[in-house]
Design a protein that fits this description.
heterodimer; A: alpha+beta; SH3 type barrels; six-stranded antiparallel β-sheet; 2 helices; 6 strands; 16% helix; B: alpha/beta; seven-stranded mixed β-sheet; 28 helices; 8% strand; elongated
Amino acid sequence: MKEEKEINLVNLVKNQRATILAITAGAKTAKRLADLGVIPNTQIKILRKAAPQGPIEIEIRGSSLVLGKGIVSKILVKQT
Amino acid sequence: MSKQKLTIALAGHANVGKSVIFNHLTGLHQHIGNWPGKTIEKAEGTLYYNGHTIDVLDLPGIYSLSTYSIEELISREYIASQQPDFIINVIDATNLERNLIFTLQLLELEKPVVLALNMANLLKEKGISIDFKKLEEILGIPVVPVAAIYGKGLTEILDQGIALINKKSLPKIQKYGKEVEEKIEKLSQALTGNEPPYSRRFLAIKLLEKDTEIEGFIKEKKPELLTQANRLGLELEKIHGHESSLVIADERCHLVSHLVKQIMKVTPRQKIGPNELLDKITGHRVWGYPIMFIILGLFFFTVFQTGSALSAIFDKLFSGWQAGFQNTFGTSLLSALAWSGITSIFALIELAIPLILPFYFILFLLEGWGYLARVAYLTDNLMHKLGIHGKACIPMLLGFGCNVTACLSCRIMETQRERFITGFLATFIPCGAVSIIVFGLVGKFLGIGWALGLYLFIFLIILVLGKIAAIILPGEPTELIMVMPNYRRPDLKTIFLQTWFKLKEFIYIAGPIVIISGIIIEGLNILHWLPHISNFLKPITVTWLGLPIATGILLVFGILRKELILVMLASLLGTTNFASILTPTQMLVLALVSMLYIPCIATIAALKKEFGWKKALGTAVFKIAFAIVISGLVLRLLNFINFNIPFVPALQ
């Protein structure tokens, strides 16, 4: 098994790409995210982060999505 | 033969142009109400097309058909039980994949659907090509490319939909993975088919998704099925390693992903268009903020400038009417009461047309353009400190115009908790009427710095109260999950109609109560009870707040409309030189009390409509007590440090 570096989505910076590994949010939030296409094994790209503690905007499935900081911190990714 | 009278519903995500299509279809033939028992907007309209009378219902903008929010539940129940003749699923063609996830859920209800691919005109510019015919084939429903803003494709949607009714063809079933399909099959077989309005497959899927509403629905009919569903769900969990509801959502995403690969091609472009550039600048982590202040500043400036100009015109227009009225009807008790009712109507007109109309218009313009979503993005962090999230910026912004409109717009928040916190805090935002007091009293006599200082103080109070409300109100804060719309040309027709219907709503809610309470207060005046009220309030106004005794009456009138505090002060004095009866400290305290105390009567009515009597009165009582305590403390602080505020030099 190749070792994968699992990091929190919060730690990515603008223009970095990553693959979602896991979503540790509660069932309700996880379901809502899935309805918008945010599920494990999906490619994302950081479009921008609002200063300093604000939400981030990601590109996922060809669309952009804004996620609040509290949700972002519950998404684990692998940088690609 | 086809029916003459049809019912259709529009369903889809927020920000896909659903309301543009709705407004183009129905125009002025629409009415906005509430869903029975819910404070969720229900927009219905009528359309006459090729001999058909078509009732069009605009369902709330939602992202799924699970039960994450009341809007989703309402939409699902409506589609299932009301059996519209067909559903128009409006999707944003430039965000196809995300939108199709919802489409797949909608098709699971097994009702006739026409897929309207809106913003088809932007596809070329974005380098996207979509094979519409193939999409039609795969889903088994008509697919119509639409450019709603130009009204293009709308008649084809209707033609296709009407043809669909006669054909009675239903969407093709999109099959999940083998394990999931097995479970769906097992559950479907156990369902007898006596479960209308839902289809068996839909119920089976929702049971596996652990949908609480459907579980309750089945429990009444076939309780043993729940155990079976649970067992099957657990089997799925074992295979996939996460909850069965997520298994299905995951598979749905994969289905869509696979589908999109077959029908869509994207040619990446090198050139950055003007809208992308605009997006880069206005959403920038540094530049976004000064630009936001400039845009919002211009927004308020324009509204208040046009507002005061229009107000002056109305003042002139109405000024001669009182004499005319008294000449015709005399000065009897009844005519005095009637006149006070008429002045309330004038005041409403002077509020609605010069202030609320331009406020809504520009706000909807910014929303249609796509800028409000950027404001929500930029302010999310700040709003989080208040226990709410970025979307609350809209009610907060509206609050600067009128608290009534602010309270009514809290519906955009997802949960009841967020709605109330937002509404409660929005009543602290100094509205147009309050700003008249602050600038007309403090700004004019003590200098603009003091006026702005008061605003800053209020913002600080909002921050602290928001923090406290977030802690004491039960429930988890909702996080911002928002789809960022592209910048686009706003549709003026939609904006005009939205403004018109919002204005109407304002008049319906504020009108009656303002007129009635205006008459009651005039009655008290005629009975010479107002001085008694002033005397009664003396311990508070004079002893605790150090204000002249007459302010008691002012504060009573202020409940009606805040700016009356200043208007009545002028009429009691017979002059607008307030420096002759109020000391600088008194001005500051009076302005502060006016800003903080009871929301005006129309705002209370709006609070009642959105949150019920208990919370409306609770908010009013809290605000009165809070205003008295804080203003008294500020006075004592000013006295304690022996601080003397000078009048502005020009007045000395």
